[in-house]
Amino acid sequence: MAKITYVEFGGKEHVVDVANGLTVMEGARDNGIPGIEADCGGACACSTCHVYVDSAWVEKIPAKDAMEEDMLDFAYEPNPETSRLTCQIKVTDDLDGLRVQMPEKQI
């Protein structure tokens, strides 16, 4: 289990425990965190679970694959360094303390 902090665009923080094996997107969805829409349900077929990963965590999470890179092209104001789709980040104990910031809006 990992404690993950989801930060809304306006700055409100939500700290939740997310079970290993779930995705960061499922953690947001299951805990009613606003700002992550997840329209495709985690199939990496949209960009509505886009977040900015805290810079301290960028190198600690698995790298983006080509499909995620392609979908991020459709995200609202993607950042080449910190933008990720939360449906593509599997939760493990190693992610304990992860912080993600929601963009102003999802497309």
TrEMBL record:
List GO molecular-function terms, semicolon-separated. Answer: 2 iron, 2 sulfur cluster binding; electron transfer activity; metal ion binding
Report the protein name in the record: Ferredoxin, 2Fe-2S
Per the record, the GO terms for biological process are: P450-containing electron transport chain
Keywords on this record? 2Fe-2S, Iron, Iron-sulfur, Metal-binding
- Fetch the InterPro entries from UniProt: 2Fe-2S_ferredoxin-like_sf, 2Fe-2S_ferredoxin-type, Adrenodoxin-like, Adrenodoxin_Fe-S_BS, Beta-grasp_dom_sf
For whether the record's keyword set contains Metal-binding, the answer is yes
Is Coiled coil included in the keywords of this UniProt record?
Answer: no
SUPFAM superfamilies per record = 2Fe-2S ferredoxin-like
Instruction: Tell me its cofactors.
Output: [2Fe-2S] cluster
Superkingdom of the organism of origin: Bacteria
Family, as annotated: Belongs to the adrenodoxin/putidaredoxin family.
Extract the CDD domains matched here: fer2
Source organism of the structure: Cognatiyoonia sediminum
Domain 2Fe-2S ferredoxin-type per the UniProt entry, residue ranges: 2-106
